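for the writeup, i need someone to sanity check this before i put it in the appendix. the sequnce is what the collaborator sent (i think, or maybe the updated version? ugh). structure was predicted straight from it, no edits. if anything looks off just tell me and ill rerun, i have time this weekend
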Amino acid sequence: MNLPVARIFLTLVIAAFAHVANAQQETAKDSVALWVRTMNGNEYVGYLEIRNSSEIQLRTADLGIVTIPFDQIRKIREVDPKNVNRPFPDFYSAFKSKYFTIQSARMLNKGDGYYQNGILLYNQAAFGITDHWSVSVSTFIPFALWFSTKAGFSISEGVHIAGNVSLGTQFEEGTGGTGSVGLFSGIITVGKNRFQATFGAGVLLEDGAFQNRAALQFGAMYQTGRRGYVIFEGNILDSDEFFDRTYLMGGRTRIRRIAIDYGVGFIDDNSDFLFLYPYVGIILPF
């Protein structure tokens, strides 16, 4: 190997080492990403640059370096670094874990929660105990009150499974009496980034006994932009006596932290009457 060739080879080797070292430095630098909500309601997401006893610095895609004192931080959470520069990142786990009335297999993050109201009558409050376990309480005024717990995990980035148990009380019309009700179900959700689809199946419990009635739930959600979603869901209740189908389709618009749901639903109970109704709801993460 003559001297010029050796010099060229050595230069290429040094350049290769420099490239690898720089890539490793960038990987380490970009290995921690944070989502932060401040006391005044602003939200920031970016790669962690500096963290000391008084403040953090984030390298954001649109604002550059942002310095946030700890006494101005209301909530902080580590997020997947791959999501930081995606076109439509969504760091509120409530919006991806809930359709209109049914749940997906995606879990609430630890410490995340939400309050939901639909058509004034339906209310639910849910909270993530851990990243894999959440609890909720729901009412449908004036007919039912129930408590639920859900446990789940991700098989891969795009496949999630969960089990849900709901137990409660149903208020009987006219008599003023009550009866116990329950639902034991399994849920699977597939999809990532902007689209997800969910299917769930379970069995019903009434007055302490399992019934010969299957409950099926399915839904799809597509994120149209930074603040918008298109949502469809269906509920099917099957038994020897009747076969009820309830469907909802519409959208969700995020306004800062709050999401407004809207759409149209219809109920088909295998009779000659098809009941249509408007749906309006709100989801408030906390």
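The chain is about 10% helix and 60% strand. The chain has two domains: 3-83, 93-285.
thx in advance!!
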